[in-house]
Target: SEC-C domain-containing protein
Amino acid sequence: MKIGRNEKCWCGSGKKFKRCHNGRENETPVSKGEAINHSQKNALRKCCYVPTDLKHECSKKIINAHTVSKSSSLKEIADESNHVLGLKINLANIIKNEGKLVPEKIGINQASTFKGFCSTHDKSLFSCIEDREFVGDDEQCLALMYRSVAKELYAKEGGLNNSEFAKSTDKGKHLLGQLSIQNFVADQQKALNASLAELSELKSELDDQLLGKSVGNLSHLIIDSTSPMPVAVSSIVAPINDFNGNLIQDLGDLSIVAEHLVFNSFSSDGKGYVVFSWSKNSTKVLSFINSLLALEPNKIFSALIRFFFGVAENTFTSPVWWSGLSDEQKDKTKNLIMSGVNPFKPTDNNLLVDDGINFSGWEISNLRKIHF
Model:
């Protein structure tokens, strides 16, 4: 490949070739320590995802905000040492576990936290779910949804930062290696930017509802039980396939605006809840929800387990519940956790379909449809 020194670099950086990839194969490769250091700094960046109109109220203290309540939910399922099982997703841990995501003990002070809100707004925005019993009113459901969307924005923005760093990992590699890395990162960034644009639009809608600028346009499904939920989660996903394996939406086509589903699983006052939330006009998400509701009641908990572990990383498990699982159930859960981790492995269309491996430990008492 011939390119002039003063021409724009082939990698798309916008820099001149002589200041970018000229002689890249002779540069010192990025070390493991440099990569880990970048990953750690990226995970500790601070911001407050409060609506712009409220930014002037921000305190100077950005805290470790919990996406799953520590006092009620995490403490409810923790062991005697106040630990739950969760995924420690950082580069150092991934290297240690040879690329595998493994459930490990995490203290409830650290579980589910991210530096995405200041102390003032973490209190004011989420006191409705932290300081009073969950009843499933509009304010509480909106707060749950808002926090999950903020956490996902934080994660996606972090992913974009990591992808920028990944561009430098072609140092010391031959031209084909450089091309492979730059093309992979470029494709990854296209997907990340598309997802960030969609999430930002959703957050903007939630901002307006939070500030009273628009009427609520959200639907919710609340599943509850008289016992605590052994798996706590707070996340958002654009579902691809439903619980029967049917295609919901093709996320490979970036021209299509993805429809998102927010979901939270938690405990409050000794009771367990699962809350699904989505925009009322998201017909594809409603179709996904209906495929869950069509299952036999005694199959829903197992379906939820497949869903939580199969699509969400921000998931925390009761060590007692986990220790009671059979080897087959544990292997199934570990396989669910690893689904989608390898970007070169095709998506399993039957990820959520019943395969005969069932789970117990939570009896559903009631299902509530709100603003369907």
Summary: The mean pLDDT is 94. Residues 90 and 284 are 33 Å apart (CA to CA). Residues 218-370 form one domain. The two ends are 58 Å apart (CA to CA).
